[in-house]
Recover the amino acids of this structure.
């Protein structure tokens, strides 16, 4: 079976599913990586059972998995045409088909353009503008053959053939000789014309030599940073802003990442040059003010990841004048400014009017806000309470169904923690805070009880050499615990050891 991407950057592309299992999630080690909002690190898994049926299993994700708009409780069967919803991603199941015939031969591609022309195009797109360097051309001071007659004598109108002209009538030297001139006068005029021409040639040569020396002096100035021709490489800069005004309530959140150059210091506690993050929050009505300039620079690989992911969204090609949107009940906007190398883009939107903008906002949220525990801070009070109530509702619903679906237990614990994290920001705390705290204690106690009981059963089956039952019990525990937990890894290693024993016993 294959799956087809119905939205997002990979719309229309398909992927063959492995019968042994295909994991889906936000982390890079998943077979299908979905770095977007609403997707857990290890969200779901698609696999084929012994009967040849394709099944999808939710791995205790935060927001759950849907198949044809029906939430997956444990596992759900997939068929051709089924639509899977994971966060914001939609996937359609399709039957495997033989590979399509290769395309007919096409004419060879045109020869690549001159690399220098490509470099010129990239330079013209840079947001750091510099005047183009002009290449000086040496002036040729060598003179060619000197014409003897710079001014051609006037031609007489055509006339009937006549007797040949006498030598006194033939043009000679610079000027046409009159018949009445004496030989001495003609010789003096010839010498004067030659002297004038020689003087003009000497003056032109001197002027050309002077210009050449001046241009050569300009090009051979002492070497320095301003005279070294380098490719424009602007440092990475990122600015993210959310602002809303509703009546007297004002909310503004700003995150900025930019390169800061610091002098070398002998103090080991002070960090050097690098990309630093600065965060500001203002919500006067609720008396929330927060500011932090991080003391440590962001890792270099994180900066490169941000560059790559932002570039892949197509955000750097957005044009502000083509994005429109209006606010209805209040004034609110979001702004993202990003620049690096020879690219720059600054876009401000209202409401959800740009899918590309929203994708970059999700990248900022996952790579910076969530990674540095700033996700809750970046929300206003109304949004925090709304999210807390939503997480509490999901947790309570999952905990009520753990008897029939034990795999819901990690989901309940995760949502209880998310709700508590938001309620703890308020003082005095809302009444729901105690409900979330008590629910978390019960869920964690239940999970530990299941863990201990399961380990006891595994040991019992192992001592009785009923290895198949021990493996089955391990599989039941693996269904409950999240794949990224230490408990899951320990159970999995124990299962592998028992399977080796089982295979040796069969021999």
């Amino acid at each position: 079976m294959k799956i087809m991407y119905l939205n997002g950057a990979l719309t229309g592309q398909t992927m063959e599913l492995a019968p042994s299992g295909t994991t889906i999630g936000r982390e890079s080690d998943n077979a299908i990586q979905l770095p977007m909002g609403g997707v857990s690190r290890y969200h779901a898994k698609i696999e084929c059972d012994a009967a040849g049926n394709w099944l999808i299993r939710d791995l205790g994700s935060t927001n759950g998995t849907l198949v044809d708009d029906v939430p997956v409780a444990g596992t759900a069967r997939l068929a051709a045409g089924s639509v899977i919803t994971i966060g914001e991603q939609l996937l359609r199941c399709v039957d495997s088909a033989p590979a399509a015939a290769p395309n007919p031969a096409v004419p060879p591609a045109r020869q690549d353009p001159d690399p220098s022309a490509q470099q010129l195009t990239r330079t013209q797109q840079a947001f750091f503008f510099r005047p183009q360097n002009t290449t000086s051309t040496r002036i040729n001071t060598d003179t060619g053959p000197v014409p003897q007659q710079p001014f051609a004598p006037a031609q007489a109108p055509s006339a009937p053939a006549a007797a040949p002209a006498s030598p006194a009538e033939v043009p000679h030297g610079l000027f046409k000789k009159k018949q009445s001139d004496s030989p001495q006068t003609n010789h003096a005029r010839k010498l004067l014309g030659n002297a004038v021409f020689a003087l003009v040639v000497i003056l032109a040569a001197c002027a050309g030599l002077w210009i050449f020396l001046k241009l050569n002096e300009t090009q051979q100035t002492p070497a320095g940073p301003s005279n070294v021709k380098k490719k424009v490489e602007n440092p990475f800069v990122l600015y993210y802003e959310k602002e809303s005004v509703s009546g007297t309530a004002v909310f503004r959140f700003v995150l900025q990442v930019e390169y800061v150059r610091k002098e070398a210091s002998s103090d080991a506690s002070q960090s050097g040059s690098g990309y630093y993050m600065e965060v500001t929050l203002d919500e006067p009505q609720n008396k929330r003010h927060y500011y932090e300039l991080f003391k440590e620079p962001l890792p270099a690989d994180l900066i490169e990841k941000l560059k790559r992911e932002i570039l892949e969204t197509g955000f750097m090609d957005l044009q502000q004048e083509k994005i429109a949107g209006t606010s209805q009940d209040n004034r609110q906007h979001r702004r993202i400014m990003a620049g690096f190398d020879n690219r720059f883009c600054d876009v401000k939107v209202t409401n959800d009017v740009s899918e590309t903008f929203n994708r970059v906002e999700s990248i900022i949220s996952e790579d910076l806000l969530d990674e540095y525990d700033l996700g809750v801070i970046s929300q206003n009070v109304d949004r925090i309470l709304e999210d807390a109530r939503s997480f509490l509702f999901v947790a309570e619903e999952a905990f009520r169904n753990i008897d029939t679906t034990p795999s819901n237990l990690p989901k309940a614990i995760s949502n209880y923690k998310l709700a508590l994290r938001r309620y703890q920001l308020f003082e005095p705390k809302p009444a729901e805070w105690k409900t979330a705290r008590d629910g978390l204690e019960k869920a964690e106690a239940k999970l530990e009880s299941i863990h201990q009981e399961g380990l006891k059963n595994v040991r019992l089956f192992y001592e009785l050499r009923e290895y198949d039952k021990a493996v089955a019990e391990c599989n039941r525990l693996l269904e409950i615990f999240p794949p990224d937990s230490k408990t899951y890894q320990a159970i999995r290693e124990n299962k592998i050891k028992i399977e080796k024993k089982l295979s040796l016993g069969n021999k």
Notes: The two ends are 35 Å apart (CA to CA). Confidence is low (pLDDT under 50) at residues 98-180, 325-329. The first helix runs from residue 115 to 124.
